[in-house]
Design goal:
The protein contains ten helices and eight strands. The protein is of the alpha/beta class and 278 residues long.
Length: 278
């Protein structure tokens, strides 16, 4: 994968680990995850309404002091890093996919690497943000520790989570068909608990519902797989239908609501790299 405009900074940590199990499920590897996001890169911003939702962007990039060093972890096309750049920050986008990094706007420093081993010095950024990327990390504990290690002041994470842990089979079935690189699933409040377990001070924790559509996320699938996803939505029990407010739009689309959890956490002064076990 190459870009017409080369990234300002490129690093390839752990290239020898490309065949190592990435989460230990479904045969996912670092190499297959890179390939998966490389394939999605060109149309990624069209796949879901949340990607460019300005309200969600603002929640994660505000407040920011002008001149702050800002790291967007699992950045994809760098939507958050770009927003931080617009606010006068020194912005870095980190992602495993060169295809995604090729979409990152000029002015943002682009780094190819994984969340489990961020190729930056300790305490080298002020604020780190990760939106949705924790779904795809091989080692959640290590990824969070790395984000804390490189950050001085604050980290902010936001992810779609299940309304209940009882919904896990629905989301696993969905992931197998639509997002096969996914390795992590979160229940309500679990992100906050993880950050508290690392000794961070919670500044803000909130959840909200976001209405979305199925069709954009499956448009790139082959017709047979699209039909399987549609059957998955049509066959859910009443509990799932109520929780996610699933409504059929037409024979090729469903509308549904997902829960987002967003957490801002302060890094206490003196917190070292020797973090407690989660």
């Amino acid at each position: 994968m190459s870009c017409s405009a080369e990234p300002a900074v490129i690093s390839f940590p752990d290239t020898k680990l490309s065949g190592v199990s990435h989460g230990g499920t479904n045969g996912i590897t670092l190499a297959s995850t890179r390939d998966y996001f490389d394939r999605r890169a060109s149309d990624y911003v069209l796949e879901a309404s949340w990607i460019k939702d300005q309200g969600l962007i603002d929640l994660l990039v505000e407040p920011l002091d002008r001149g702050s060093r800002f790291l967007d972890v699992c950045a994809g096309p760098g939507i958050l890093a770009s927003a931080a750049l617009d606010r006068g920050c020194d912005a870095i986008a980190l992602d495993v996919s060169m295809g995604m990094l090729c979409q990152v706007p000029r002015g943002v420093t682009r780094v190819c690497g994984k969340a489990e081993r961020i190729p930056l010095r300790g305490k080298s950024v002020d604020v780190s943000v990760c939106r949705q990327g924790l779904h795809y990390v091989a080692d959640l504990d290590l990824s969070l520790r790395e984000i804390v290690r490189v950050s001085c002041l604050e980290i902010r994470v936001a992810n779609v989570v299940m309304w209940s842990r009882r919904d896990i089979e629905f989301w696993r079935d969905y992931a197998r068909l639509v997002t096969p690189a996914r390795t992590q699933y979160f229940g309500p409040g679990e992100l906050q608990g993880r950050l508290e377990g690392l000794g961070l001070e919670i500044i803000e924790a909130r959840h909200f519902s976001h209405r979305t559509r199925l069709a954009p996320s499956i448009r790139g699938l082959d017709p047979a797989r699209q039909k399987r996803v549609l059957r998955l939505f049509s066959s859910q029990p009443a509990r799932i239908v109520r929780s996610y407010e699933i409504d059929q739009v037409d024979e090729t689309d469903y509308a549904y609501s997902v829960r987002w959890d967003m957490v801002r956490a302060r890094i206490p002064e003196g917190l070292s790299g020797e973090l407690p076990a989660i």
